Amino acid sequence: MPKLSDTMTxxxxxxxxxxxxxxxxxxDMLAEVETDKATMELESFFDGTLLKLFVPAGSQVxxxxxxCAIGKAxxxxxxxxxxxxxxxxxxxxPAPAAAASPAPSxxxxxxxxxxxxxxxxxxGRIKISPLAKKLATELGVDAARVPxxxxxxxxxxxxxxxxxxxxxASASAAPKGSSFFxxxxxxxxxxxxxxxxxxxxxxxxxxSKVQAPHIYLEVEADATPLLELRSQLNTALEKEGxxxxxxxxxxxxCGNALRKVPMVNASYETDQSGQGSIRVHxxxxxxxAVAIEDGLITPVVRDTSGKSLFEVxxxxxxxxxxxxxxxxxxxxxxxxxxxxxxxGMLGIDRFCAIINQPNAAILAVGGTVKKPVVVNxxxxxxxxxxxxxxxxxxxxDGAIGAQFLAALKELIEKPALLLL
Length: 420
Prior knowledge:
The chain is of the alpha+beta class. It has eight helices and 17 strands. Helix content is 24%, strand content 23%. A six-stranded mixed sheet has the order 8-17-16-15-11-14. The radius of gyration is 26 Å and the shape is globular. 30% of the residues are buried.
């Protein structure tokens, strides 16, 4: 198992793309591996015959552990002592007694009663094909309770149809006429195993809060000029397929503000003796948080200050799609020097983000809120955006952070500067 990301210690072998006896050439893709960041294909660097698979699909394998043997056809292979064992299957949780389907009415014909499916509660991330996921949404089927028959424990289209027919996995099983607050009976606890990504998030956020003394600085920016310019540009360039988001403006503004206040574009480092130092980065590489099924990942827009607003927008959209498809390559999510976390589109007015180490700061962007504001001693309706900067106090003092927020606020309130 190769180390496919900077923080990877184990990988989950999703599925084999080759089988024993296949002729393998250097460059062939052998398997799909889920790291703590993305799902990637495992490439062979050898020519020969795939003699033996040591690891079944669905197993977690430590970095450096053997996965398979490639050699000459007919060559004898012994399973090495370091080979991973099959992942233990978690038994399906029993259905609560109160959740059992009611007996058919005496008036209803017996032929209409569909056979019940065995209830299932998937542990950890639900493996489901895109088509099955879409079908589950359309039919109102709870995928978390659907038995999987696809490769590697993946839910496929046929599983969703069978669950819908069986009537045991409905996402809205409440009887008609029931009260909104009516109790549905006791619900059993559910233990969710940590995925590789969630385990990494847990470890790194804990390390950040323990190691980096956080200070928080907040300002409100007038978002009206930005929203007006965005609307004008999107209307004018609609035929060209251009659609700028608020986050595109924020990423570009952060890149420019970091050039004005370069001390924020820094990180805290320690050598082998524990001696600390501050590295001020020459490149401005702004990363941004993307929520995916397993947690968060932060793809990086490199040289953000040197790119136009439209280049930043195009690259950010492409990276976000790759992130959601779990197809990001390591070079696309490493090397960030500053991070932006925007939860405004989720209805969050303001929040404080945890620093994505080794960065010295992270910007939390809240939603744009209409509220009364004072302009020229008159109360008017304004559109205000919350900007909260979390700083590593080992690197940044409040005054430096305030300078950065002032530069960022000016760019947001005068967004035409971002087009220069």
